[in-house]
Amino acid sequence: MKTTSRQIFESYGGQLRMHEALSEGISRTQLYALRDKGEIELVSRGTYRLADLPSLSNPDLVTVSLRYPKAVVCLISALSFHEITTQIPYEVSVAVPRNTTLPKLEYPPLNAHWFSGQAYSSGIETHRMDGVDVQIYSPEKTLADCFKFQHKLGTEVVVEALRLYKERKKNNVQELLKQAQVRRMQNVMMPYMEAVL
């Protein structure tokens, strides 16, 4: 029995990238016909999903993760995800490994930061959203990164995040100190941690 295009989409959780569709035997012409009939919708350039799936709960993060699997949500975007900021991100901040070239993305706006070694790999959590694995830095790694970028984000934003971390999260001071060391920010963070935590 021949596998239908819908069954192929369903086997991928309802979402397919163009190259995955092609490798599964769905031609570009078939994809465009499915789109024109309203059976699938374009999520972002080269990524399609079944039109009858529930709305995406976090479309910006899902879109970025589908296009850039190695990207890790960071800074204000990660603070917002962890609910330890009152800031509303107007772009998705991501960390990517050094020497990574990011393809063009029309939407959402992207703010990429190139990290290397442990600065990139430490503190990555994977959260499942709408059938997609989204990599996001832990609250502790995010706070350390925010202190590293304090001159760009503003001290008020960073201190507010530390206060909200104390109020809303199960404080893990050891992990916070570890991430401060990874980012070489322990001397900067320590006075704030002693005052707030």
Counting H and I runs of at least 4 residues, what is the number of helices?
11
Would you tell me the overall average pLDDT? Answer: 89
CATH class of the largest domain: Alpha Beta
Strand order of the largest sheet: 1-3-2
Which radius of gyration do the C-alpha atoms yield? 19 Å
The SSE string, one letter per element, is HEHHEEHEHEEHEEHHHHH
Q: What is the architecture of the largest domain at the second tier of CATH?
A: 2-Layer Sandwich
Structural class: alpha+beta
Distance between the termini: 62 Å
Helical content stands at 40-55%
Query: What is the beta-strand fraction?
Result: 15-25%
Instruction: Indicate the low-confidence ranges by residue numbers.
Output: none
Total beta strand runs: 8
What is the molecular shape?
elongated
Provide the number of structural domains: 2
CATH topology descriptor of the largest domain: Beta Polymerase, domain 2
How many strands, what sense, and barrel or not for the largest sheet?
3 strands, antiparallel
Oligomer: single chain
Organism: Pontiella sulfatireligans
Protein name: AbiEi antitoxin N-terminal domain-containing protein
Domain AbiEi antitoxin N-terminal: 7-51
InterPro entries: AbiEi_N
Which features would summarize this protein structure in a list?
11 helices; 197 residues; AbiEi_N; alpha+beta; AbiEi antitoxin N-terminal domain-containing protein; single chain; three-stranded mixed sheet; Beta Polymerase, domain 2
